[in-house]
Design goal:
By secondary structure, the protein is of the alpha+beta class. The two termini are 27 Å apart. The protein has helices spanning 16-20, 48-52, 71-76; strands at 3-6, 27-29, 34-36, 58-61. The structure holds iron/sulfur cluster (2 copies). Residues 20-21, 23, 25-26, 43-49, 60 line the site of one iron/sulfur cluster.
Protein backbone atom coordinates (compact mmCIF):
# COMPACT_ATOMS: atom_id res chain seq x y z
CA UNK A 1 0.00 0.00 0.00
CA UNK A 2 1.12 3.58 -0.59
CA UNK A 3 2.41 5.54 2.38
CA UNK A 4 2.37 9.25 3.16
CA UNK A 5 4.56 10.67 5.88
CA UNK A 6 4.19 14.20 7.30
CA UNK A 7 7.00 15.74 9.29
CA UNK A 8 5.17 17.68 12.03
CA UNK A 9 8.17 19.93 12.55
CA UNK A 10 7.85 21.23 8.98
CA UNK A 11 4.06 21.20 8.56
CA UNK A 12 2.62 24.73 8.78
CA UNK A 13 -1.01 23.62 8.58
CA UNK A 14 -1.53 25.43 5.29
CA UNK A 15 -3.93 22.80 3.90
CA UNK A 16 -2.41 22.80 0.43
CA UNK A 17 -2.00 19.01 0.39
CA UNK A 18 -5.64 18.55 1.37
CA UNK A 19 -6.85 20.86 -1.42
CA UNK A 20 -4.51 19.25 -3.96
CA UNK A 21 -5.89 15.73 -3.59
CA UNK A 22 -8.63 15.35 -6.19
CA UNK A 23 -9.63 11.85 -5.11
CA UNK A 24 -10.32 12.76 -1.45
CA UNK A 25 -7.66 10.55 0.05
CA UNK A 26 -6.68 13.41 2.36
CA UNK A 27 -9.03 14.74 5.03
CA UNK A 28 -8.48 17.88 7.07
CA UNK A 29 -8.40 17.84 10.87
CA UNK A 30 -9.69 21.32 11.74
CA UNK A 31 -8.76 21.14 15.41
CA UNK A 32 -5.18 20.02 14.84
CA UNK A 33 -4.86 21.89 11.52
CA UNK A 34 -3.18 18.84 10.04
CA UNK A 35 -3.90 16.46 7.15
CA UNK A 36 -5.06 12.91 7.81
CA UNK A 37 -5.06 9.97 5.41
CA UNK A 38 -7.93 7.59 6.23
CA UNK A 39 -8.39 6.58 2.59
CA UNK A 40 -4.78 5.99 1.61
CA UNK A 41 -5.83 2.77 -0.16
CA UNK A 42 -7.51 4.98 -2.80
CA UNK A 43 -4.33 6.97 -3.53
CA UNK A 44 -3.52 7.05 -7.24
CA UNK A 45 0.14 8.03 -6.70
CA UNK A 46 -0.22 11.32 -8.58
CA UNK A 47 2.14 13.14 -6.23
CA UNK A 48 0.16 16.39 -6.16
CA UNK A 49 0.09 16.49 -2.37
CA UNK A 50 3.88 16.29 -2.20
CA UNK A 51 4.41 18.86 -4.96
CA UNK A 52 2.05 21.39 -3.36
CA UNK A 53 3.68 21.05 0.07
CA UNK A 54 6.04 24.01 -0.16
CA UNK A 55 7.81 23.23 3.11
CA UNK A 56 8.51 19.66 1.99
CA UNK A 57 6.84 18.33 5.13
CA UNK A 58 4.90 15.72 3.18
CA UNK A 59 6.52 12.72 1.54
CA UNK A 60 4.72 10.21 -0.66
CA UNK A 61 6.18 6.72 -0.72
CA UNK A 62 4.45 4.99 -3.66
CA UNK A 63 3.92 1.25 -3.59
CA UNK A 64 4.47 0.34 -7.21
CA UNK A 65 3.34 -3.21 -6.55
CA UNK A 66 -0.11 -2.05 -5.50
CA UNK A 67 -3.14 -2.73 -7.64
CA UNK A 68 -3.22 0.69 -9.28
CA UNK A 69 0.03 0.41 -11.18
CA UNK A 70 1.43 -3.13 -10.79
CA UNK A 71 5.11 -3.34 -11.60
CA UNK A 72 4.58 -5.90 -14.38
CA UNK A 73 2.23 -3.48 -16.20
CA UNK A 74 4.76 -0.65 -15.95
CA UNK A 75 7.72 -2.70 -17.15
CA UNK A 76 5.90 -4.48 -19.96
CA UNK A 77 4.75 -1.16 -21.43
CA UNK A 78 8.25 0.35 -21.60
CA UNK A 79 9.63 0.22 -25.14
S1 LIG B 1 -0.54 11.18 -4.30
FE1 LIG B 1 -2.34 12.13 -5.29
S2 LIG B 1 -4.03 10.71 -4.85
FE2 LIG B 1 -2.38 10.21 -3.43
S3 LIG B 1 -2.86 11.38 -1.57
FE3 LIG B 1 -1.45 12.63 -2.82
S4 LIG B 1 -2.78 13.97 -4.06
FE4 LIG B 1 -4.06 12.28 -3.26
S1 LIG C 1 0.89 21.06 2.39
FE1 LIG C 1 2.56 20.44 3.77
S2 LIG C 1 2.70 22.13 5.25
FE2 LIG C 1 0.69 22.32 4.25
S3 LIG C 1 -0.73 21.14 5.59
FE3 LIG C 1 0.02 19.72 4.00
S4 LIG C 1 1.79 18.68 4.96
FE4 LIG C 1 1.37 20.55 6.16
Amino acid sequence: MNTIIVNPALCTGCGACYRACFVDVIRWNKEKRKPEFPYIKDCVQCGHCEIYCLTKALKLIPDYDSFMFPREVITTNIR
